TrEMBL record:
Alphabetized PANTHER family for the sequence: METHYLTRANSFERASE, UBIQUINONE BIOSYNTHESIS O-METHYLTRANSFERASE, MITOCHONDRIAL
Keyword S-adenosyl-L-methionine: yes
Organism from which the protein derives: Kribbella amoyensis
Record-given protein name: Methyltransferase family protein
Domain (Methyltransferase) ranges: 58-144
Highest taxon above the source species: Bacteria
InterPro entries linked to this entry: Methyltransf_25, SAM-dependent_MTases_sf
Lineage: Bacteria, Bacillati, Actinomycetota, Actinomycetes, Propionibacteriales
Gene3D superfamilies hit by this protein: Vaccinia Virus protein VP39
Keywords for this protein: Methyltransferase, S-adenosyl-L-methionine, Transferase
Pfam family, one: Methyltransf_25
GO MF annotation, one: methyltransferase activity
One GO-annotated biological process of the protein: methylation
Length: 236
C-alpha cells in the first residue's frame, strides 16, 4: 500500500464544497470512516456483478472501507481498491489496496472494469471531474468497462429523513445553487454516534455526462438502472 499522512480525527477539508464532522477519522471529502465500517451493501454489488463478465479484474476508485469490495470479491472478482484515505484502505486486508488520490493514480496495469461509485463523478469542479474520468480511461483495458454511479438529483430535491434498522439519515439545509449544483447536509445517526457531511454536487444531464466522458476518451454506452444513476462507459 502506498502510504500518506493519516487524517486526524474530526479533520475538516473544505475542498470542492465537501466537509464532515463527527467521531473518529473523517476523510478529506468529509466521509466518516466509522460509519462506513458499519455499513453494508444495499444491492450495489448486484448491479455491478450483473453488468460485468465473471471473474473480472476490477479497479475500484474511492473504495472506502470496502463496503462493496468485499461482496464483489465474494462473487469471484479480483479487485485493486483505491482510496486517498489511509484510514479507509486499512480496513480492507482482503485485497490489494493503493492509498492515492484518484486524480494522481497511474498504475502500470489495465483492468477489465474500472468502478467509480459514490457520486464522485458529480464533483462540482469541472477540472476535477475531468481528472477523475481521465484516470478511469487510463486504467480500463481496450474493450473494457467503466462503471459510474451518479448522484440522483431527486435525493437533494427537498429535505427528508430516511431510516433503516438503527441508521437514521437526515438530509437538510438543501440549497439549489447556480449552474445546476445542489448542496445538502447529510446527518447520519447510528446508536449514540452522529456524523454530518456537507455535500455539493454537480447534476449532470445525459448530454453533459456524454461530453465529459468523451473529453476523457470514454464513450457512454447505457444506463444500468431505471433511475439512470448507474452508467456503463467504454474506451472510445
Ligand atoms: C462516500 S465514501 C464511499 C466509499 C465506497 N465507495 C462505498 O460506497 O462504501 C467516498 C470515498 O471516496 C474517497 N474519495 C473521495 N474523493 C477521492 C479522490 N479524489 N481520490 C481518492 N479517494 C477519494 C473518500 O476518501 C471516501 O473513502
Amino acid at each position: 500500500m502506498v502510504e500518506s499522512k493519516p487524517t486526524a480525527p474530526g479533520t475538516i477539508r473544505k475542498s470542492a464544497g465537501q466537509s464532515g464532522t463527527g467521531p473518529g477519522p473523517i476523510t478529506p471529502d468529509g466521509s466518516p470512516v466509522e460509519l462506513y465500517i458499519e455499513s453494508d451493501a444495499h444491492g450495489e454489488d448486484q448491479v455491478i456483478h450483473a453488468a460485468i463478465p465473471p471473474a473480472s479484474s476490477i479497479l475500484e476508485l474511492g473504495c472506502g472501507t470496502g463496503r462493496i469490495t468485499r461482496p464483489l470479491l465474494a462473487l469471484g472478482h479480483r479487485i485493486v481498491a483505491v482510496d486517498e484515505s489511509p484510514d479507509m484502505v486499512a480496513r480492507i486486508p482482503e485485497t490489494e489496496t493503493v492509498c492515492s488520490t484518484i486524480e494522481a493514480l497511474r498504475l502500470d496495469r489495465r483492468f477489465d472494469v474500472v468502478l467509480m461509485m459514490s457520486f464522485l463523478v458529480n464533483v462540482p469542479d469541472d477540472e476535477a471531474r475531468h481528472a477523475l474520468l481521465t484516470t478511469c480511461a487510463y486504467h480500463v483495458r481496450p474493450g473494457g468497462t467503466v462503471i459510474l454511479q451518479q448522484h440522483d438529483r431527486e435525493s437533494f430535491a427537498r429535505p427528508r429523513v430516511l431510516e433503516r434498522d438503527d441508521h437514521r439519515l437526515v438530509i437538510d439545509e438543501v440549497e439549489h445553487l447556480s449552474g445546476d449544483r445542489d448542496a445538502a447536509t447529510m446527518t447520519h445517526t447510528l446508536g449514540d454516534r452522529t456524523w454530518s457531511q456537507r455535500i455539493v454536487v454537480q447534476n449532470l444531464t445525459e448530454q453533459q455526462l456524454t461530453g465529459n466522458l468523451a473529453a476523457a476518451g470514454l464513450r457512454f454506452v447505457e444506463h444500468l438502472s431505471p433511475d439512470k444513476t448507474w452508467v456503463r462507459a467504454t474506451p472510445r
